[in-house]
Each structure stands twice: as structure tokens, then as C-alpha cells.
Amino acid sequence: MVAISGHGANRRLPFFYSRVKGEMKTALRHQGWPRLTLIRPLLLLGGSQARRESLMATLFNVLPGNWLAVSAQAVARCMHERAFQLGGERLEIIESDQIPR
Prior knowledge:
- Helix content is about 40%, strand content about 20%.
- A 3-stranded parallel β-sheet has the order 1-2-5, with helices on both faces.
- The chain has a single domain (about 1-100), classed as Rossmann fold, CATH 3.40.50.720.
- It has helices at about 15-30, 50-60, 70-85; strands at about 1-5, 35-40, 45, 70, 90-95.
- The chain has 3 helices and 5 strands, in the order βαββαβαβ.
- It is an alpha/beta fold.
């Protein structure tokens, strides 16, 4: 199973988006998938909010670590690659800075 989660997802947080993504992670883990990959981009680029995304991407791409904006195409390629990868960890979490560009 390969799914898109969210940066900082945690079912104990009061923020709706982060809490729901954290609950999703917990539910998927309890379903007993042989291998579960969660891809957690911070900011996903390529939607209809192009101007706002462009401004946000500029800001996030100068920050260090996993505070990187990622294109939807890069996330899709990463998901496809992981879906057909043999073996690997039972639970793999891929953060923004680990998604190949």
C-alpha cells in the first residue's frame, strides 16, 4: 500500500488536517499490509492555486531539511516506484526532502 499523508501528521494534534492524516496512518497500519509506504510532502505543487503555490514554493525551497515544496509529478513518480519495489521495510515514511525531483 502506498498513500500520501501530510508533513507532521499526528492523530493527537488538534489541527484537523494533521489529525486526520495521523488517524489514516494508524488505520492503515492496523490493516496489516505486508508493506506500507507513506509519502509526506510538505507543500504539493501543481494544482489550480499556481500563483499562491509559486510564492509558497519560493519560501519553502530556501528552508533547510524536509521543508521543501514538491511537484505532484515527483510525488506520483515516487508512489509508482515504491508500488513496484520488491521487499523493503514493513513501514516506510518518505518526507519531502527524500522525494526524488
